[in-house]
Amino acid sequence: MIVGAAIGWAARVPARVVAWVMAFGAGVLISALAFDLVDEAERTGGLLAVAVGFLSGAAAYVAANAVLARFGAQHRKRSQDRQPTEEEANGSGAAIAIGALLDGVPESVVLGVSLLSGQGVGVAMLAAVFISNLPEGLSSAAGMKRANRSARYVFGVWIGIAVISGIAAMAGYVLLDGASPFVIAVITAVAAGAILAMIADTMVPEAFSETHILTGLITTVGFLTAFAIERLS
After folding, report:
1. Share of residues in the chain with pLDDT > 90 (%)
2. Residues 157, 160, 162, 165, Cα dihedral to 10°
3. Averaged pLDDT for residues 99-108
4. Is the C-alpha dihedral spanning 71, 195, 112, 27 positive or negative?
């Protein structure tokens, strides 16, 4: 996220390139969810745990995102002139920061929980988080800059999110150590549901706004890439 923000602040990356990477990252995340998170949660906790957690996570994300959208955070991943300035929407800066945090925490919790198996973080999931966060930080930081927000604000937001995400990963590992497989499966499914809702609500619209008809193809390539990584690792 921080690397992406630095690139977005310092360089004028074409919006279409950002959208291509965003679409690719969406496909990678969807594949990691299907074959790494949801599948593992179902095998350890059962279908009921997955269904309850998955729907709860998606519903919670959508509800929180709807509230933040009312304060100007609906275009937080947009690199073009879509993010409102503070003058246009009072409190939009805080809403965008909270929204970016909302997008990042579920992924971090998943990384922490995945360590409980003792086998380390799955390569596919780690690649998915990295590939999706890079364009997210890049696009959002570029949009913040266009909305006349300072470098101190932009990097304060992304460094803060990185720190909190790290704490969330640690919490997922420490607090759930010794929890039953059903509980771990539910938590994993909650995070997975939130991530899928995030992909549909924020990543895909940003990608489609620039790539249009190519969005589906690029997303498919991302999905296949993550699937191959998961099977070969």
Report:
1. 15
2. -120
3. 79
4. negative
CA atoms within 13 A on the CB side of 156: 9
CA 74 – CA 68 distance, rounded (Å)? 7
Q: Which of 33, 199, 198, 215 is nearest to 110 (CA)?
A: 33
Query: What is the Cα–Cα distance from 227 to 56, expressed in whole angstroms?
Result: 26
Contact status, residue 185 vs residue 49, Cβ threshold 8 Å: yes
Calpha distance 110→223 (Å, rounded)? 19
Confidence band, pLDDT 50/70/90 cuts, at residue 77 = low
The answer, yes or no, to whether residue 180 has pLDDT greater than 80, is yes
Cα–Cα distance measured from residue 157 to residue 92, given in angstroms and rounded to the nearest whole number: 13
d(CA 177, CA 196): 25
Question: Chain-centre distance of CA 223, in angstroms?
Answer: 15
* Mean per-residue pLDDT, 76-81: 61
Q: For the residues of 57-80, what is the DSSP string, one character each?
A: HHHHHHHHHHHHHTTT-TTTT--S
**Distances, alpha carbon 164 to alpha carbons 158, 160, 167, 197, in Å:** 10, 6, 5, 21
Residues for the chain: how many in total?
233
For residue 15, pLDDT beyond 90 = no
Distance (Å, rounded) from C-alpha 122 to C-alpha 230?
A: 8
pLDDT higher than threshold 80 for residue 85: no
Question: Measured between alpha carbons, how far is 148 from 151 in angstroms, rounded to an integer?
Answer: 9
Q: What is the pTM of this model?
A: 0.82
Cα 176 from Cα 114, distance rounded (Å) = 11
pLDDT of residue 92: 61
